[in-house]
């Protein structure tokens, strides 16, 4: 064997020193979830700085010829079990005093201590070189290799730059109003205790406005506790921005809230501002919980956290294929829960093949396969070693070695304003975001998201003419409303509310019991549309809209709409229990299409808004004949209601979006315009300038050669022909989302063209029912069984924690990040997202 010094000299040109912009992957294998803690450690290529597990480093060497690798192994330091650590599924026993993660006094985060061993390994003979060995080698070798080793060790790993280990919810910014706050010389002096709301005499949650000294109660919380919103109403009336919570004043500070900035803030002049109203900050004592303490208490709410995590019982850990835990990368529980459920679906399981590195070129598909293999193979489903158990004699804990999907999280979040951060997110929004990415990356091959894709039919009936309009759209999730007025325990809820209003601190928290049948009834009942412009009677009138399934997917996702806004636009979560069934039959919600003898509304849009001196050349607008440009007039100049546009702009919406909202709703008022905005906020051209029909870039005038090939490919991948995609894009100014909406509202016009129906089979069609024309959707019976659900704990989607329960071989299993255990009492009534699979008949 050649001398190791000579070998190093021969490969010296391939050994690089990391530069500031280099990404060093020293925590995760590029092709698996091996890490420095895994058996065999991690090999970091000293040229590309990619990491490889022991089973893949030889493959990389064979394919690239690279020989020098930086080998890292980590072993846990032995330490005694902390008495405050809890068992599987239990909330932390050590009471947190700070709204933070990974910070002293915050919520517990397990911080392991490791011993690290590093060396250079030369392939293929696996010759090893330590730092001590370099001392005997030539200067040029010693200097280059030492610098490279030190650079790799000192560089932040990619996972470190992506992962927030600490989160401090108490970090507050200085209010922009604090330095120059206006304070009225009105003679008001505030006593050091005995405060009451000036309006309702409430004695808890009392705030003083720092401008006029008004003492008022705070906001009402989602569960009915708190105040009566009088401090907020005072701000809305006066505009005085800052208020201090009186019971929290101490020599160290106090809770200060800025209504204008809508956040807890710092006031560097607080002693001066308090003294203005006779309050000596240095003599005050804390008599009420701070907002941080209240949030911590809510986040530890026993009724939800313990029930969902099943922390009242000893759970049996489970290991093996399909039972692999996922490490929390800092508020990544939403991602963990969604991906665990998705890889229970056969379509996604088929993407997780060991040979993915050789058969797939798209990055997303590679990482989906990598994640799927990591979750399903069982290779990483092993008990995490107990640092205090040197002999391995103790029973396995619920924690697993698991996998840390750092690269996957970075990829799916890249460029997204929310999912690229380490803040908590909405699991439903992430699911749709991920499905969107899969749709874009699976145009030419099998698309696993087809398992969830279905068609929705909307039927609108003009009440004056009784003529109807049918449209179809693609969807992936059924959003189920929660009719709170249908609660079966109304008397208990009212009694608990009465006791809270009377200040009874012992009043129990009562959860509303909502029947699932009431939720389904609310989903299927007709919606009343006021100010509907009817093309049959050429005026605004009332209409009803009914929504039905035009196809039934293989796998159905139901979202319980627990998150909503109060009358003051403050986000809140409905604390409800819903008796979600194990089996579901949606056959009664199947769309029937146009009924015999039923007349359709004419395809005519409202007349365009014009100035009186403009000649009208066509009245059909963007819904006229797309091939006849004579219907569009470049002279059309809309008259927009300036007051409505101004009101929308004051709400923070872009000016051009407000102008379009008023234009497309025909100057029918603020409510209609607001509905348009809420429905089109995700449009890529939402804030783009208003383009009128007949302009050079208007609808119907986009030449074929200027159409986006990417948009064409996207529509074609949904099952439409290229001609149909071209027609839709030409009719909608080459805007993808509008083109998709257009194509579903013109299906009758497209039936004469060749509509691809790939993905449907005669065997999948129920009772010989003809499949709806349009995109690839799988259809079949509307009977389902529950196989998974995702639950959320906390007050809003921006905080709290997610876990999922999945039924495997008739056994419910709880996946709580790295903890995977047999579920004893799956809390099916407290779920947020429910997943059903079709029952074969």
UniProtKB/TrEMBL annotation:
InterPro entries: Papain-like_cys_pep_sf, Peptidase_C19_UCH, Ub_carboxyl-term_hydrolase, UBA, UBA-like_sf, Ubiquitinyl_hydrolase, UBP13_Znf-UBP_var, USP. Residues 324-839 form the USP domain. The active site is at residues 333, 801. Keywords: Hydrolase, Metal-binding, Protease, Repeat, Thiol protease, Ubl conjugation pathway, Zinc, Zinc-finger. Residues 756-765 have a biased composition (Low complexity). Residues 639-680, 706-746 form the UBA domain. SMART domains: UBA, ZnF_UBP. GO terms for biological process: protein deubiquitination; proteolysis. Its EC number is 3.4.19.12. GO terms for molecular function: cysteine-type deubiquitinase activity; zinc ion binding. It is an enzyme of class 3 (hydrolase). Gene3D superfamilies: Cysteine proteinases, DNA helicase RuvA subunit, C-terminal domain, Zinc/RING finger domain, C3HC4 (zinc finger). Residues 173-281 form the UBP-type domain. Residues 73-98, 381-400, 487-509, 755-778 are annotated as: Disordered. Substrate binds at residues 207, 219-222, 257, 259, 262. Zn(2+) binds at residues 197, 200, 217, 230. It catalyses: Thiol-dependent hydrolysis of ester, thioester, amide, peptide and isopeptide bonds formed by the C-terminal Gly of ubiquitin (a 76-residue protein attached to proteins as an intracellular targeting signal). Belongs to the peptidase C19 family. This is Ubiquitin carboxyl-terminal hydrolase. It comes from Dicentrarchus labrax (European seabass). The lineage of its organism: Eukaryota, Metazoa, Chordata, Craniata, Vertebrata.
